[in-house]
Amino acid sequence: MSKIRVYELAQKLGLENKDLLARLKDAGIEAKTHMSVLEADAVQKFEAGREQAEDKPAIIEERRISSGLIRRRRKAVPKPEPKPEPVAESESVEKAAAAAPVPEAPAADESSAAAAAAEKAVPVTPDSTPQIDVEPTVEEPAVEAAPEVSTEKEVKTGAKVKTEAKVGEKVEAEVEEKVEAESAAPAAAEKSPATETAPSKPSAPAVVEKASPNRAKILGRVELPQAAPPQRRQGRPAGGQPGRRPAGNAPGRPGAPARPGRPAPGPAPAPVGDIPGGKETRNKRKKKGKGGDGPAGADRHERRSKRARMEVFEPDRNDRYRRAKRSGKQQKKTEITVSKAIKRKIRISDVITVGELAKRMGVKANDLIRELMSQGNMVTINHPLDYETAAILAAEFNYEVENVGFNEETILNVDKAAVGEDKPEDLEPRPPVVTIMGHVDHGKTSLLDAIRATNVIAGEAGGITQHIGAYDVELDGRKIAFLDTPGHEAFTAMRARGTSVTDIVILVVAADDGVMPQTREAINHAKAAGVPIIVAVNKIDKPGANPEKVKQELTEFELVPEDWGGDTIFVEVSAKEKTNIDGLLEMILLQAEVLDLKANAKKHGCGAIVEARLDKGRGPVATLLVQEGTLRIGDPLVSGAHYGRVRTMTNDRGEQVQEAGPSTPVEVTGLSGVPDAGDTFNALDDEKAAKEVAQHRAQKQREAELAKTSKVSLDQLYARLQEGDVKELKVILKADVQGSVEAVRDALVKLSNDICRLVVIHTGVGGIIESDVTLATASDAIIIGFNVRPEPKAATLAEHEGVDIRLYSIIYDAVADVKSAMEGLLAPTLKEVALGRVEVRDTFHVSKVGTVAGCYVLDGKVSRNAQVRLVRDSVVIWEGKLNSLKRFKDDAREVQAGYECGIGLENYNDVKVGDIIEAFEIEETATKLD
Ligand SMILES: Nc1nc2c(ncn2[C@@H]2O[C@H](COP(=O)(O)OP(=O)(O)OP(=O)(O)O)[C@@H](O)[C@H]2O)c(=O)[nH]1
């Protein structure tokens, strides 16, 4: 044979060029196009191979690609010859079927049968065994070989082998499908009648037809999850699907494959169409979807079936689908759902802007602006709304506004309502805190030193004492904290800031001097604070000491010694000689026991600033007295408008300490600024909160300075009486002489009535001093000066603190004013407006004119028409008008501060160097009671 072109050969064989090319390729003969030339050898080889191929069945090479996929390729195998003695074989099969766990022969049987019938049957090999590849050349049994493989597999794994056979269908070149079938039991497979089933060849389809109605349900129900996807993808024709059956089904039908002459019905030739998820089912659904239910129902149905399919085949995607669906639903829900009541409550801190309010309510800012405009407010989006406006506006939109403001107490954890009282089991006894008061030179400092020296020598030999403003002393293991701020001024200054630090007051009275004015003041200050007093009668070592006289004098102030039937402890001591210091300490501890002082050391430290200063090297340094809780290094701290962390802590002996419990004074660094003595301090959880509180306080301070209100003033007395704010009018009375004090006090006390009691908490002779003002501040008192003036510092402080100072020269005026105020009938107030103060530095006598004072204007100004008051040692000497005001030799209308001037007083010549001339004007204002 000579060479031949492909198309010629195709014509010769009656094939299409394309087909021939494919076959040539399969046969391993190279031919690219229909014009390619084929060698004679190649043609012969091809034709020979073709003849052979027509006679022998194709063998399928199967390769498992993945757990669910088997790739199957057709391979030419020699035609198997029918086995002899089919009957004997059948019997064996019958036996095997009974014995095997999976009694039915695999699809191989059917395949063989089909192969025989169609001469192109597929002897199905089980599972993924590549061994099949070597079989084609074996003459006898490709089919036998297959069961052998099955057997091997069964033995090795003991598992079911998945396989699939196609009955009556020409296998395509490459097929991918997932199948599941049971492997044949070894014996059954070996003796499978597959090879001898030629006679029953035609029965294979019949078996399929018969089996399908009965088994479809079972198959479908059980095998759906595994079998469905490939079916769907492949779209295998119904009836072409070889039997598949659940493994568990086999034992239920023993002997099924035993019938000779028929292919084992075991692996049920499932009617694929009946398997849920199969093509037919899908078609049905499609049909339904398209026609039956109408668009809505169809859609719903389609969605449901799609979802069902996804549940089976794509669980992950299904999750996504569900999630997407759910989130979609939620979004929709948000749109239509009305917010819960709690969400309709907007919490604001005093003020909120229009924009912020709109955002919180979820409405457009424009809507709010429109609403406000309709109410007559022209605002912008950044316009701040106060609580009331915000509340009214929000109500229009069905929202509530709650003013949460800034609650300092909550942040500081001192809000008893929120935190609750300390548990009794947490309360432990704490040392008493003591302050020493008394008249000048009666020995306060000496007594403190004596106490300290005794203590240092006793306990801390060699210790370097530090002045930190407060210190501990110890007696028999019991501690006492002393505040090293002798005098009632500091004591009251602290109290004025709302800090009650002192538990016990030691009143020092010199035995040789007795009760003096400041002794009285100290008593009044201590009593006003409600602090118990222990009297230390000092200087008993002095020859002229008369302790009994001191006791006698103090009875006037209701301080009666115990041995005289009273309840005041008197201790006779000598600070200089250090006599009976321990006796005094003992009495302090005794008094402390009576007071039953307790504190909870388990919480954050809090207390008061005893003193504070700015140290060049260390920054702000503050001496704190811890009153409750425990203060530790590193604790965030806030005091007044300052905050920080406790960087270092030092005790009064100069030792670094890590923590300080109740009634312990320590010197602390780490604050951002210098707090005021008497300020409280609080340790917190975090520094940010401390900063917030400090900033808030600073803000409040600024506001307070802007809107200063007096504590109690006569002008407002009646209104406040009506409101029930005031039940008691406290008065501090200062006068030029003791007689005036008594007279005015008696007159005032008589004004007490049912509505308001008038209490004179302190009286004194002399000008109004700072301590009077601090006492008035601390006690909400007014100050009445009779023929006296406030010292400049006191006046400034009074103005700063809003303390009402009333100055009178006639008792009747003082009494009438207070009475009118109490009755709400205060006459128009003649308000004195101070212009300035002038100091007399020299005096000249000018004939016919009188005495002219050479003066210096200290502050403000003095004007020619002003009224003046001559003050000597804070006592008013004269009041009247100016006769002359000169700058050098010229008359002046007014002279400002910092300049010298000559002043002549009208009809008054007794001017002395050092006198102060106060210039003022009288302004008449109507009394306001509201
Ligand atoms: N003999 C005697 N003198 C004492 C005693 N205590 C104090 N002194 C003296 O009294 C004077 C005043 O004592 P201070 O301790 O300065 O009195 P003070 O009350 O602190 O005085 P001020 O700080 O000015 O208020 C000093 O000279 C002390 O030496 C004492 O017990 N006996």
TrEMBL record:
At the top level, the lineage of the source is Bacteria
Q: Where does GTP bind?
A: 438-445, 484-488, 538-541
- Chain spans, region Disordered: 70-335
Arranged from A to Z, the UniProt key words for this protein are:
Cytoplasm, GTP-binding, Initiation factor, Nucleotide-binding, Protein biosynthesis
Q: What is the lineage of its organism?
A: Bacteria, Pseudomonadati, Thermodesulfobacteriota, Desulfuromonadia, Desulfuromonadales
Protein name, UniProt field: Translation initiation factor IF-2
The family this protein is said to belong to: Belongs to the TRAFAC class translation factor GTPase superfamily. Classic translation factor GTPase family. IF-2 subfamily.
Q: Where is this region: G-domain?
A: 432-580
Instruction: Show the InterPro entries listed in the entry.
Output: EF-G-like_DII, EFTu-like_2, IF2_II, IF2_N, P-loop_NTPase, Small_GTP-bd, T_Tr_GTP-bd_dom, TF_IF2_bacterial-like
Q: Which GO terms describe its molecular function?
A: GTP binding; GTPase activity; translation initiation factor activity
Basic and acidic residues compositional bias, start-end: 150-181, 298-321
Q: What does this protein do?
A: One of the essential components for the initiation of protein synthesis. Protects formylmethionyl-tRNA from spontaneous hydrolysis and promotes its binding to the 30S ribosomal subunits. Also involved in the hydrolysis of GTP during the formation of the 70S ribosomal complex.
Q: Which organism is it from?
A: Geothermobacter hydrogeniphilus
* Bias kind Basic residues: ranges: 322-331
Domain (Tr-type G): residue spans on this chain: 429-598
Composition-biased stretches (Pro residues) = 260-270
Q: Where in the cell is it found?
A: Cytoplasm
Tell whether DNA damage is among the UniProt keywords.
no
Pfam families for this protein? EF-G_D2, GTP_EFTU, GTP_EFTU_D2, IF-2, IF2_N
UniProt-listed Gene3D superfamilies = 1.10.10.2480, P-loop containing nucleotide triphosphate hydrolases, Translation factors, Translation initiation factor IF- 2, domain 3
